[in-house]
Amino acid sequence: MVTGAAAMARTGRRRVLLVVLVLLAVQLVSLARPAYACGCGAMVHDPKTTMAVNRETSAVRWDGRTEQIVMSLTVDGSAPDAAWIMPVPHRATVELGDPDLFDQLSALTEPAVEQRHYFWPRNGDWPFQDADGAGAPPPGARGPGVGVVGRERLGPFDVARLTATDPRALRNWLTSQGFHLPSSLATELRPYVTQRWEYVAIRLAPAERHRPLTGTLDPLHLSFASDRLVYPMRLSRLAKTPQSLGLYVLAPHRMEPRSAIGGTRPEVFYAGRIKPQGAVRDLGGSGGTFLTAIDQSFPQPQRITGDHELRPAAHDTPFQRVRYTDALLKVGGIPAWILTLFGALLLLAATVGAAAAIALRARRRVPTPSTG
Asked: How high is the mean pLDDT of the chain?
């Protein structure tokens, strides 16, 4: 009986362990499943490999006639190559972007730092010791229905600029040219084909073959005619994981999205007129430019309803985040609370001394009774 019970216990433990291992494997697979699309369009790769877009940053310049989009992606995974497609309303020119652009835009939109003072000493101020010294932890060929406008090699990118009158023909041509796109993409491309948009198909072609794509890719700079500021987002409906979008918008006025297009409410984290310099001036021009920085997330990408269209806001209201730093209030380098306490003690001593002096004088004035 004891031997049988022990055997049953061992069997039970094996089953529990097996269940735990299966659940762990499921979790690991779900974590490794890459985002199928990013905010800039469809991102695809070999299904046997993994690819994750850790961050997408885009800068958009619009002057009322021409739109420019500079995209930078930070990727990670085991895929040695990947591709994505970007729909554009008119014929586009494509070139490599300036990698310094986003560093400069990030610096322009940094929060303003303001100092706040507190009176009484806190942890870390004398006479208290710092119990926690850690600071606070600080986005060529032609096929049926497809026309090839141009094809060029730009750094690590193989870029094809296309027109298409049939979404299935477009997908077939892209597949024949090494852009392995899933069949579901034809459905999502149909609205663009109906509107006679064109496409920029981009294949990542690293200098070193079979090396996984990781890190921040060189930015791409697209320019095309447009009488409205539009940022293509429809293809991100195909994403299997939550998506996020960060936009730096350079325009004559403050800009805002017409709608949330199925995502969270877009949040402006900077708005203000700037004097462009360096890479920002090369993109936005040398004149006065209004910079609007917008963040948005898409927890359920399948709810995306279309492309982002941005319009001028009612007012060019400036906005900048503020980061506060707290400091002990000092006067002449001495903590104000010490001066106040010292002053209070002096006042108290003076008051006590004055009271004692008055009492002493009063005692002296009291006449001594005569005897007689």
From this structure: 76
pLDDT in tens, 205-250: 666 666 666 667 788 899 999 999 999 888 888 877 788 888 999 9
State the SS3 of the chain: CHHHHHHHHHHHHHHHHHHHHHHHHHHHHHHHCCCCEECCEEEECCCCCCEEEEEEEEEEEECCCEEEEEEEEEEEECCCCCEEEEEECCCEEEEECCCCHHHHHHHHCCCEEEEEEECCCCCCCCCCCCCCCCCCCCCCCCECCEEEEEEEEECCEEEEEEEECCHHHHHHHHHHCCCCCCCHHHHHHHHHHHCCCEEEEEEECCCCCCCCCCEECCCEEEEEECCCEEECCHHHHHCCCCEEEEEEEEECCCEEECCCCCCCCCEEEEEEEECCCHHHHHHHCCCCEEEEEEEEEECCHHHCCCCEEEEECCCCCCEECEEEEEEECEECCEEHHHHHHHHHHHHHHHHHHHHHHHHHHHHHHCCCCCCC
Residue 32: HSE in the Cβ half-sphere, 13 Å Cα cutoff: 13
Distance CA 240, CA 238 (A): 6
Span 4-25, average pLDDT: 43
Q: Between the CA of residue 171 and those of 163, 183, 247, 360, what are the distances in Å?
A: 12, 7, 28, 106
127 against 299, higher pLDDT: 299
What is the token pair recorded at 161? 């600029």
Name every residue whose Cβ is closer than 8 Å to that of residue 146 and which is 6 or more positions away in sequence.
162, 163, 164, 166, 169, 170, 173
Cβ(295)–Cβ(245) below 8 Å: yes
Average pLDDT over residues 252-272: 94
